[in-house]
Specification:
single chain; elongated; Fumarate Reductase Cytochrome B subunit; two-stranded antiparallel sheet; 63% helix; mainly alpha
Length: 199
C-alpha cells in the first residue's frame, strides 16, 4: 500500500489578502470621520456664541478620548491581522515612505488626544468643572497631574496646550499627504490602494 507524501512543491503558501478586514475598514473610516469633525470643532471653537463654546469644547474632548480608544483598538487589530501588501510595482522608497507615514499617523492618533487629556487635566478649574464623556457619564482626568503644585500645573497646562497644537499641525500635514498619496495612486499611477480599504 503506497502512501502519498507531499513534496515541497506541492505545499503552497496562502495568498496574501487583497483588502483590509471589515473591522479594520470600519475603524479606519470611523476614526477618519471623528478626526475631521474634531479638527472642525477645534478650529472653530472661538467662533461659536458664548453659550455654545463650552459644549463644543466638551464635545471636542469627548471625541478625542474616543479616537484614542479606537486607535489603540485598531493597533491591536493590526498586530493580529495581516494587512494587504502594497502593489509590487511600487518602488522600494515609496513602500518605506508609506510605512513610515502610517507609523507616524498611529503615533499622532495616540499622542494628540493624550496631550489634550494632559492639557485638560492641568487646567486650573478642572476640579470644579468635571468632564463628562458626551455628557453621558463622568470621565476622569489624569490624577497625578491634577494634584501637582498649582504653579507647576499652570506651567504644564501651557506646555501641554502648545504640544497639542503642534501635534495637531503635524496631523494636518500627514493627513494631507495621506490623502494626496492615495489619490495620486488612484488617478495618476493607476495602481489603486484605496480599494484595499473599501468593501
Amino acid at each position: 500500500m503506497s502512501r502519498h507524501v507531499a513534496t515541497p512543491s506541492a505545499i503552497t503558501e496562502p495568498l496574501p489578502p487583497t483588502r483590509y478586514t471589515r473591522t479594520a475598514m470600519a475603524l479606519h473610516w470611523l476614526i477618519a470621520l471623528l478626526i475631521i469633525v474634531n479638527v472642525c470643532l477645534g478650529l472653530s471653537a472661538e467662533s461659536w456664541p458664548d453659550d455654545w463654546v463650552r459644549p463644543v469644547v466638551d464635545t471636542h474632548k469627548s471625541i478625542g478620548i474616543t479616537v484614542l480608544g479606537l486607535a489603540l483598538l485598531r493597533i491591536l487589530w493590526r498586530v493580529s491581522h495581516r494587512p494587504p501588501p502594497l502593489p509590487r510595482e511600487f518602488p522600494s522608497w515609496e513602500k518605506v515612505a508609506a510605512h513610515v507615514a502610517h507609523f507616524l499617523l498611529y503615533l499622532l492618533m495616540i499622542g494628540l488626544p493624550l496631550s489634550g487629556w494632559l492639557h485638560d487635566s492641568a487646567w486650573k478649574d478642572a476640579a470644579t468643572h468635571p468632564m463628562r464623556l458626551f455628557n453621558l457619564f463622568p470621565w476622569p482626568r489624569i490624577g497625578f497631574v491634577m494634584h501637582l503644585d498649582p504653579t507647576l500645573r499652570e506651567s504644564l497646562h501651557d506646555r501641554f496646550g502648545a504640544l497639542h497644537t503642534w501635534l495637531g499641525y503635524a496631523l494636518y500635514a500627514l493627513l494631507a499627504m495621506h490623502i494626496v498619496g492615495a489619490l495620486k495612486h488612484q488617478w495618476i499611477d493607476r495602481k489603486s490602494v484605496l480599494k484595499r480599504m473599501l468593501p
